[in-house]
Amino acid sequence: MSHLKPILLSTVFALTATPLMAQEEQFITIGTGGQTGVYYVVGQSICRLVNRETAETGLRCTAPATGGSIDNINQIKAGGMTMGVAQSDWQYHAYNGSSDYEGDPFEDLRAVFAVHPEPFTVVARADSGVETFADLAGKRVNVGNPGSGSRGTFEVVLDAMGMSMDDFALSSELRPAEQSAALGDNQVDAISYTVGHPNGSIQEATSVVASTMVDVAGPEIDALIEANPFYAKAIIPGGMYAGNDEDTETFGVKATMVTSATVPDDTVYAVVKAVFDNFDRFKGLHPAFATLEPEEMIADGNSAPLHPGAERYYREQGWIE
Ligand code: GLU
């Protein structure tokens, strides 16, 4: 996946810089995640397409690394970001005021489109003997950084399994970019990440040390899927990562693009148009995007209402009534 390397992305920016200005520039920011995840590529890819049209739209897009889903939603709410990538479970909770957003709904949250599936992923050192989620009891586990959707969903799973952070010998809060090296250095027995596949973080983790992708399944997970529309069964295909030839059974969410009702329709329209007018190009920017279909992207994973700017484009395409 050499195209994931930051060096190539910066080359891309150099190529798209400074067209003639037809109108005043408006800066937009897309919140992503850690640099070794897939959100970062989603944001960089969208900005790359948006910035090809700057002369016409006036929009100049940047997509910095962030703490992940919950951080992005909160920054959009605070007006510090225009858009962001967020897990479908956290989109749901933020809009409906449930779970971590209990009593604090973000009513202006708007869906733009859903992107790739994100399986809940746990990788353990082979020498830890961990084979199931319950085996994590007594182990040193990286539960993820606060502000990430991944960390939030990890807590939901813990709860569903009747476990708590106290069951671990250590619960560290390393960011995605740090956790793979910590696994390799034997500072933790297992890492967790709700993320699209393949990605740089899990690729690094599985290549620095002999590792096992942990099944996250059973009656507790079935009950979680049953009770929540935004969860579904998921498989991480065997053969994708070093030393893990068998399929891994788990559950997952979708990555989604979200924004606020306060962002102008023309802005969201221009972003959506840049992506879908150049959809083959977009799909080619990461293997996790390869199977995306527009009709699914605007139907699945979105629990907040669609932003009217996005709706305008989808209607023009005949994808919605
Ligand atoms: N789903 C993760 C989160 O919200 C981020 C995954 C990624 O960066 O690709 O924290």
UniProtKB/TrEMBL annotation:
Could you tell me which InterPro entries the record lists for this protein? TRAP_TAXI
| Keyword Flavoprotein among record annotations | no
Task: Please tell me whether the keyword Methyltransferase is annotated for this protein.
Answer: no
Signal sequence coordinates:
1-22
- One Pfam annotation, family name? NMT1_3
Q: Which keywords does this Swiss-Prot/TrEMBL entry list? A: Signal
Fetch the PANTHER family from UniProt: SLL1037 PROTEIN
Query: What protein name does the entry list?
Result: TAXI family TRAP transporter solute-binding subunit
Q: Which organism is it from?
A: Paracoccus nototheniae
